Amino acid sequence: MGRAICCGTACAQVCRVSPAVAHSMQMNKTHLVKRSAQIILYLAAGYLIRQKGLSGDPLWIAAGWLLSAWVVLRVGLAVRRAVVKVRARTANGVDLASLDRLTVEAMPSWVHGYYAIEKKIYAGCWRALTRRAVPVRAGFGVAGGPNGRAIALLLLLAAGAGAAALAWSVQALALSFWPHLLVQGCVAVIGLYAAIWVLGDRRMLAETGHSIAPAALTLELGIRSAAVVALAAIAECRVPVGDFKAHCGAQGMDGSQLWRVAPGEAPNVVLVLRADTLLDTMWFGYPRKLSKRYIALYVDQPQQFARAMEAALRAYDKASMQAASA
Known about the structure:
Elements: H1 8-14, H2 19-25, H3 28-53, H4 58-89, H5 96-106, H6 112-129, E1 140-141, H7 146-170, H8 177-207, E2 209-212, E3 216-221, E4 225-230, E5 234-238, H9 244-251, E6 258-261, E7 269-283, E8 286-297, H10 302-325
Parallel strand pairs: 6-8
Antiparallel strand pairs: 1-2, 2-3, 3-4, 4-7, 5-7, 7-8
């Protein structure tokens, strides 16, 4: 195993997630299992007590009252904690920032990553619908490929067709007016939510990209993935000629050792790492560790990116040798 090159703190900053939150999110699986087990236990206890209480046994009736009191107590304590937090956060007035902090504090830590990308999706969708200009940023874009636009269009059509099919199938159900209206509303919300995600994702891809610094390469693929890779870990940068899969076969590259960072496009740049490297990445807002030897990228301008990478690697090696000889 190679050195752990990628900096977790820097990677967390790329995705606007603090290291403490990133560490807590890694415990989400255990937390989910624990919470699910508690809910199942409460439901099972409630069902058992209700069935036994139908017989009129005073012990089971008392148990039912105790369980109800326990649930009410838990809810009351949760409400009390929420009220205290609301008063503390709104002591100097209410604004969007304070409401956002309150929302984050009210959530379990394992939801923070999803909440962060949800905000980016909604903001990106709004900027796309209002046709705001994409801000000019230093770096190399990743959203100009032909496949990405086609995939986004197909997803929008699929969302519309799926919502229409669900709405049509509801007609076959023998529902009265209000239940029928409720189901139709839910179908419309699902279709709208899917469309918001498609538009927001495309906008976030257009606003992000890869950038080269004197000591590190920052990879940003919208909300999908991100990482910061030290230049010390990169041996060379290649631009494949022809089919990417054929290039991998000709170079003897193991597919299991390759991390693909391409938004539905065929990779057109390959970074060869010096050894198997432990990468601290972000994947849809959550930390993810990968051990890879190659990184396959899609860049709108592969030749320019490769030249910039080679220049950065030469400058880094020169600076390293000067520092070693000093």
